[in-house]
Records
---
Amino acid sequence: MSTPKSKKKLTPTQEASDPSTSPERLAELAAQDIKLGRVVAKNSTTPPDILKTLGESDDKATRKSIAGNPNSPTDTLTRLATQFPEEVIQNPVFDLLLLENPNLLSEIPLASLRSLLKRQSIPIAFLSWAAKHEDVGVQLAVVLNPLTPAKAVKGLVMSPYPNVRAAAELHINYAEADDDFDWQRVFWERIGTDDLVQKEENIRPLLTLGLIDPRVFPELSEEIRRGVAQNPNTPADILVKLSTDEDSYVRWYVAQNPNTPVDVLVQLSSDKDSDVRGGVAENPNTPVDVLVKLSTDEDSYVRQAAVAVRRNVAQNPNTPVDVLVQLSTDKYYGVRGYVARNPNTPVDVLVQLSTDEDSDIRRGVAKNPNTPVDVLVQLSSDKDFYVRRYVAQNPNTPVDILVKLSSDKDSGVRRGVAQNPNTQWMY
């Protein structure tokens, strides 16, 4: 029996993202530097106590990852909801927490609750519940969410707070369906008086709906611009305007927004702020050539993010052939490995990858259902027994090669032959 191939030593970054890394090692890595802490914060197996500590980090990227980590403690999530409401709402554990504790919404800090209620991804039932809340800020958050149902809005018209009543009367689900109704004009008339308070809270929903002229953007607070920049429902033309904002947080949110146009992502990939470039590297719509450029960025966080996105592109079965061809020469073996496994990868690229010096890439080629017979014949003699195992399992492997592999010294190869649908023709 052959000696198992020794496991490759993981880099600190790989350890930080590996689900099998021990809690003690994760804590050690998180304490080393901010970049490793960001990776540990994304690891879904990181223990809650470590995530709680990282949730207090001064680093915004780390806190954002904690908000989306399903292993984060409840009190940490409710606190971070103020800064990262979308991540908390989209956290897979959020619905479970509500099932476990039906009173959770009433226990959430007011600042966090207000932030959550402003998101258009918040469940409608939450808005209906919050419409009965006694806090004026909560009521305003509900009435300024364009998705709040008409029944809840009509209830808020009777609110004891004048500013809430005024906002409710202007709600899209309350106003009469009149083509001549000039929402923007009426809004500015109202906000010009003092019967609407917390003006930042009032402006943001109208911005995301495109109801405010972009020329007023410079007059708006950083909080508003940041909130609009990170909203996945913000129209592309507004994101274009915000992409040149003087505030780096605004540009960072634009860089991550799935609605941001490609030409803006290209522009932001050269931003002076490394977090902004990192946001571009994490955006699923960033072109491959930009990701390749970012993989050589001077900042390690940007490089790692760019590589991670390229891996995702390489394994997507819907990725265009020309993109797969480009990624097949990527310097990172993990990217080439996913190209080798992709069922959309053209034959000539599989032939090229079949001679890659890294065994992980050759394994991917051996496993690919489109690998030609002559390549499978070549790989059937590969020194790596995992490559031979995948050849033994591949339905395209010819019978004479299966016969040869049935006597392989590795038991896994022999089992692969036994499982191959073509084995029946050997007897």
Note: The chain has 31 helices and no strands.
---
Amino acid sequence: FGSGRGGFKTGVRFCSSYQFSSRIRLRLISGSIDGSRAKHKTIYRPSNENTLEIYRHLQTSQDKYTYFLLATTIAAIGFAITQTKDLALNWTQVPVGISVLSWGLSFLFGCLNRLYYTSALYANLHYIRIRDGEHPEVGIHPQRIQAASEGINIAMNYNSEKANKYGRYQMFAFTFGSIAYIAWHILEMYLRK
């Protein structure tokens, strides 16, 4: 349950694709809904099908948000390239270069967010199998279940924090790139006078 392929830990907490409800999970490790750290581990199980459906919709909307940012960054890069293709290279294009670089970083951070998120789902599958005594390597032995669960929890904390961090970085880089592009556009308009 240590390192998985690609340097990712095999255990990850079921986390949101980004910040909105990153501390509300189908399986809470922190011990509280608001995300404050607690010493004990709790497992939240939705009380009815309606609650589970709300969680599914929440996760779907967060996935769509991340993919929206990924698509928007690629479109923004393409738009910036088409707007500058006939311009001679000079110092006034530094802001547009910064914007394209920021958007590229935003795309990279979004992809890393998705990788850690996928690892979270994979780890939760293993956690459930271990908890239910169905994992072939752990079986139903209580000490093995406890040890494997603790190992997955360590990996879950690591990967969940990484996924959330890259989600925040994705939005920050996208916003910074947009501001740099607007600054370039204003500079170009000023120099045309």
Note: Residues 1-8, 10-43 have pLDDT under 50 and may be disordered.
